[in-house]
Amino acid sequence: MKLSILDQSPISSSQTAKEALNESMKLAQAGEDLGYSRYWIAEHHDFPGLACSAPEVLLSYIGANTNRIRIGSGAVLLPYYKPYKVAEVYNMLATLFSNRIDIGIGRAPGGSAEASNALSDNFLEQVWGMPNTVNDLLHFLDGHFPEDHRYAKVTASPLPEISPEPWILGTSKKSALLAAEKGLSYAFGKFMSDNDGVAIIQEYIELFTPRKLGQRPNVILTVSAICAETNERAKEIALSSLIWSLQKEKGEGHLGVPSIQEAKKYVLNQTEKNTLSKAKQNMIIGNPHVVKQKLNELQALYKANEIMIVTITYSPKDRIRSYQLIAEEILKNKYGSN
């Protein structure tokens, strides 16, 4: 099983944003040592509890401090941007870090309505125009347009020896159909979706149209997981993330991920207890054996080529330890091994 990391660069209640971003770099380094295939960083806006609003900036820092692991966006929120500029940015990263760059493409707002308006005057219009925007981005990444295209004479320099690998990220049938139509790899965000991912991925596989000779459907399943030495400890660590998700829904999450002690003191009403119980069902929480079993089951059920794991904890050490235990159980790699 191939494993990868999705990082949202969460800020704990005791951290500064700078410290959180530095911990993201340390996580990428640990992931590389542990044998994870890729490290993706998410894009969020107007969200005090998440540190990364510009993945392309953080990726340059992480690329300079790692050597092998693939790095990329999870995702570039394309409706906000001109595809030409996006291609320039990721071509430059691919020039600096050869054969290591992924460009995940998404259409979600990634923040408040006010932030969307601040970023774009016509966000919803651009969401509807995503298929055409993706076409333009792919042409820029490929380095050529049809001769009669308005951008035929425009090049997204610098052109790297190996282009960034494009992905479509999503949680719906619409995103899967777009990936299939364009012949792109697809990452399904199970951790943030109640949709029937099994059916969505199956339709993607069945309708996949290759862009290049020999290309096959390629699926990443993204899940939320927290692993510790014991089930009890994993549940205790996960409480911080669960309470924080509840706080965010109530508009109270601006202080960042609460400590375990803070989370235990949080008073829940019955509705919130039910919400938390449902949230737990969409997470994998347990010791290494439990996590491995559940990941294997999900990979088989969803027909995923790769599992990408997002882990939010209060303590950066607990987060790296979670990824370490999973890697030791599934990839059989110890932290610090070559």
Walk me through this protein's architecture.
It is a single chain. This protein is an alpha/beta fold and 338 residues long. It has one domain: TIM Barrel, CATH 3.20.20.30. The protein is 46% helix and 16% strand. Strands 1-2-3-4-5-6-7-9 form an 8-stranded parallel β-barrel, surrounded by 8 helices. Helix 3 links the parallel strand 3 and strand 4. The radius of gyration is 20 Å and the shape is globular. The two termini are 19 Å apart. 44% of the residues are buried. It comes from Metabacillus rhizolycopersici. It holds the Pfam family Bac_luciferase. This is LLM class flavin-dependent oxidoreductase. InterPro entries: Bact_Lucif_Oxidored (IPR050766), CmoO-like (IPR019949), Luciferase-like_dom (IPR011251), Luciferase-like_sf (IPR036661).
Q: Label the structural class.
A: alpha/beta
Query: What is the count of structural domains?
Result: 1
What does the overall shape look like? globular
Put simply, the count of helices is 13
Main β-sheet: number of strands, strand sense, barrel status?
8 strands, parallel, barrel
What is the CATH class designation? Alpha Beta
The H-level CATH homologous superfamily, spelled out, is Luciferase-like domain
Q: What is the averaged pLDDT score?
A: 95
CA distance, first residue to last residue: 19 Å
User: Which band does the percent of strand residues land in?
Assistant: 15-25%
Helix content: 40-55%
CATH architecture: Alpha-Beta Barrel
Instruction: Give me the strand/helix succession.
Output: EHEHEHEHHHEHEHEHHHEHEH
How many individual β-strands?
9
CATH topology group: TIM Barrel
Q: State the strand order across the main sheet.
A: 1-2-3-4-5-6-7-9
User: Unreliable runs, pLDDT <50, ≥5 residues?
Assistant: none
User: What is Rg?
Assistant: 20 Å
